Amino acid sequence: MGRGPSIEGRKNAEDAKRAKVFTKLIREITVATRAGVADPAANPRLRAAVDKALSANMTKDTIERAIKRGSGADGGAAEELRYEGYGPGGIALIIDCFTDNQTRTVADVRAVLNKNGGNLGTTNSVAFQFTRCGELVFATGGDESQEEKVLEAALEAGADDVINEHGESTVICAPENFESVQQALIQAGLHAEHAGVTMRPNNRVAVSPENVEALQTLLDKLDALDDVSEVSHNALLPAEAAG
Q: Rounded to an integer, what distance in angstroms lies between the CA atom of residue 45 and that of residue 32?
């Protein structure tokens, strides 16, 4: 008689998932430190990253090491890099990285793109299709009263727009207003599923059925690269289109 996964197997899978989450959080902290100062009290982006890491039960020692790496205090000279390119079906990609070895990073990114139906573009080849903005996503489940609550709080806080779709309310604001909008929404009792300053596509492009799997594989492989901190794209994936 067959048995389900062992307790040890499930634990290993959970540990692997947790490690991946921690890797992303550490990147976020190092990038935020690099972009500003090493003091969370004086760096809103870093404070938000640290809060997220603490919520995920990351230890303070691990957080401090990430801040040291970002500030260069550990002897490492790291920098933010941005690559632009295309995925299957001509989907536009912006790939943000944080690295201490530009040669390695561009080689890794190019290899993943070339092996998975994409290619590296030149600077500003796709950036014009995106706008840098603050984005906070709330799971409202299509509940009109919840959507109204998010809308009222967001507009009161100085947000530019609120988009309700796919059971989510997405608050859009100027990058410089992100911290104040986020704090106002928290004070209103609203907690985002995802929040950050990101490159948001001006328009989303539907992905043909034959390219969906290839695009998702490419996005997963880029996301798995150690030096990649965020991948933005303009694809409208089937799950979103059906939402």
A: 6
HSE-up of residue 32 (Cα within 13 Å, Cβ side): 29
CA atoms within a 13 Å half-sphere pointing along the CA-CB vector of 107: 4
Q: Give the pLDDT of residue 242.
A: 46
Could you read off the pLDDT of 153-203 as tens digits, one per residue? 999 999 999 999 889 999 999 999 998 998 899 999 998 888 888 999 999
**Residue 124 three-state SS:** coil
Decide: 26 and 36 in contact? Cβ < 8 Å.
no
Radius of gyration, CA atoms only, the chain: 19
The beta strands (E) that lie in 143-233 are given as: 161-165, 168-173, 194-201, 205-206, 228-233
Dihedral sign (CA 101, 24, 81, 123): positive
Please give, one letter per residue, the 3-state secondary structure of 82-112: EEEEECHHHCEEEEEEEECCHHHHHHHHHHH
Name the pTM for this structure: 0.77
